[in-house]
UniProtKB/TrEMBL annotation:
Residues 84-99 have a biased composition (Basic residues). Residues 70-83 have a biased composition (Basic and acidic residues). This is Uncharacterized protein. Residues 70-122 are annotated as: Disordered.
Length: 616
């Protein structure tokens, strides 16, 4: 096969020849010898070159033929030999450099191939799912890299580019998603080379419909698994509106799901195939709400269950369950049983789901609400209460329907007659009967019998079991009694030794202050209702026992105690006294009739230190 091109006034013809056709085509009778015959004899079939699994087009060469003399032929052969030497040198220089291999691509051909040329300059590129298939118009990324390394690679996202390139050797790579094909070619100094590559892949498109003829679903979950590849992860497993990707040839299982609807299909993809799969989920939607009575607002805390339509007596496992103000289920078309539970009230109902439809169902439960609490509880107390609920069903007698522990009972109930019972840990009980009406909230405060108060006796002393001086007991000690967990005192005032406080049973914090010294102390106590308890508070203080040696002359004696800083801390008139002090060093000064005498004093916690001064 030959194509003729004429170049202006020179009259030279250019033929685009296949190497195989030159070797096989017979010469005309009048051309059995001469330049054309010698050229044909010198051309050998180049065959086909393979890269990976793809077959490149046959390599074409262009020969310019004109009338030649023997000298012209020899000169041209010499020039051709020179050009071949130059090419070999360039090739050797290029191969000395490391050539990175493309990921997932077959090794490059050992001998660079010459791409078929057309008129122009550079290279025209095209890629297809399979060699010889329709060219891809999008998604292909081309990289053209000079093997000489003298220029940076050219990268283009045009799927069918035509690039102007200088003559030389290049590695051309086509990438489509995870597919990669690479080949090395020679770009001639003149002419437009064309290169076609195939990926040995197939395109798969998936649409998931709620029913045939409807618009595709926007949020269906699509999962694709390649069959026969053990342990391989799914090709895709995500929510999406549609799927359109290129995959290797093979057998795949396609699964689509939305809510409780599921569908799957196994397909085979051959290289070059462009396959569209439509999956019909035949799915519908239902929203369920419940209200206590017709005309009222829907309840906020309802438990919803979805069950098969049959098996009512066998208590089947729910297909799905949700709690709250409403429940929305996405279901395959069919009949189902829905259940709404509000406390002890419930209702069942059958529902038919049609493809690509939305059903809104409101269930009337014919129920009311009970809120039961304990009344007159002491501030801060958290008693443990056991509630029991008894329903009265006509002639059948009382029927215990609920037993629950907690500080409060809040439950939905079917209409009817009931009795609620609250029992405390100590055995005290309270109960009340009531009637539940549709949509009515019933509040009941149960008051168990009161317990007798606890009797608490508070005494005070110094550490080690020592007693406070008599003068300190009533006027100089204040106390405060606070229930644990609160800040407001329920009793406070001056301490009276051996007096009792009547308090409700519970836990308390007792704080005491010794006003003359500022010493403070606190103690926790538990007082059970009806019990008698005693609390002894010990201050971290000592006692100075003052005594005048000549007692008969001490009627006008004055004692003054000062700290080491010189500040007075206590004063007493009389021949003898007991004074409570904080541990530390003091100076005692005794003055009688204008005569003073001093002595050092050391007070120890929990000790009584005697001080006896004579008159000087």
């Amino acid at each position: 096969m030959a194509r003729h091109f004429w170049h202006g006034a020179t009259g030279a013809a250019i033929l685009l020849l296949s190497a195989n056709s030159l070797a096989a085509a017979p010469l005309p009778a009048n051309e059995t010898a001469g330049p054309l015959a010698s050229l044909a004899a010198s051309v050998q079939p180049l065959g086909v070159a393979k890269v990976g699994t793809q077959t490149l087009p046959e390599v074409f060469r262009v020969a310019q033929i004109r009338a030649k003399t023997t000298r012209d032929v020899e000169r041209e052969r010499a020039e051709e030999a020179k050009k071949k030497q130059q090419k070999k040198k360039r090739r050797r220089r290029a191969t000395r450099k490391a050539k990175p291999q493309a990921v997932n691509a077959p090794p490059p051909a050992k001998k660079p191939q010459t791409a078929g040329r057309r008129e122009g300059s550079g290279v025209s590129l095209a890629a297809a799912l399979i060699t010889g298939g329709p060219a891809l118009t999008s998604g292909v990324v081309w990289t053209v890299e000079p093997l000489s390394g003298e220029a940076p690679p050219t990268v283009t996202t045009n799927s069918q580019p035509t690039l102007s390139l200088p003559a030389g050797q290049y590695r051309i790579t086509a990438k489509l998603n995870d597919f990669l094909q690479s080949v090395e070619v020679d770009i001639p100094a003149t002419g437009l080379a064309r290169l076609d590559l195939g990926f040995n892949a197939a395109r798969l498109k998936i649409k998931v419909l709620p029913t045939m003829g409807a618009m595709p679903l926007e949020n269906a979950r699509i999962r694709i698994v390649k069959i026969g590849v053990d342990g391989a992860p799914p090709v895709v497993d995500a929510n999406m509106a549609a799927y359109d990707e290129v995959l290797p040839a093979g057998i795949y299982r396609i699964e689509a799901a939305l809510g409780l609807a599921r569908v799957s299909e196994d397909i085979g993809l051959t290289a070059g195939a462009n396959r569209t799969v439509v999956l019909n989920l035949s799915v519908g939607y239902v929203r369920i709400r419940a209200r206590p009575a017709p005309g009222q607002e829907p309840l906020q805390n309802v438990a919803f269950e979805l069950l098969p339509a049959d098996g009512l007596d066998a208590a089947p496992q729910p297909l799905a369950s949700k709690s709250g103000a409403s429940a929305v289920f996405t279901l395959p078309a069919g009949t189902y049983r829905i259940v709404a539970r509000y406390g002890e009230a419930s209702r069942r109902q059958l529902v038919d789901i049609a493809p690509n439809t939305f059903s809104d169902i409101i269930m009337d439960l014919d129920a009311g609400q009970l809120v039961a609490t304990l009344a007159d509880l002491p501030q801060g107390s958290k008693p443990k209460v056991a509630f029991r609920l008894v329903r009265h069903d006509g002639n059948e007698g009382p029927n215990l329907i609920l037993s629950r522990s907690g500080a409060k009972l809040d439950v939905g109930l079917p209409v009817g007659s009931y009795t609620v019972i609250a029992e405390l840990e100590d055995g005290r009980q309270a109960e009340k009967s009531f009637i539940v009406e549709p949509g009515v909230r019933t509040e009941i405060a149960l008051a168990p019998p009161a317990l007798p108060p606890a009797q608490l006796t508070i005494t005070a002393g110094i550490v080690g079991g020592g007693k406070l001086p008599d003068g300190d007991r009533d006027r100089d000690i204040t106390i405060s009694v606070t229930a644990s967990g609160t800040s407001k005192p329920i009793a406070n005032g001056n301490l009276r030794q051996n007096d009792s406080l009547a308090l409700p049973g519970g836990d308390y914090e007792i704080s005491a202050t010794h006003r003359p010294t500022g010493a403070k102390i606190s103690s926790a106590v538990s007082a059970a209702a009806g019990s008698k308890s005693k609390v002894h508070l010990e201050f971290p203080l000592g006692v100075a026992s003052l005594d005048l040696a000549e007692a008969s002359q001490g009627s006008d004696a004055e004692w003054v105690l000062t700290g080491i800083d010189g500040k007075p801390v206590a004063r007493h008139l009389g021949a003898a006294a007991e004074i409570t002090l904080k541990p530390g060093e003091y100076v005692v000064t005794l003055t009688v009739g204008g005569t003073a005498n001093t002595a050092a004093l050391s007070i120890t916690e929990g000790k009584v230190t005697p001080v006896k001064l004579p008159l000087e």
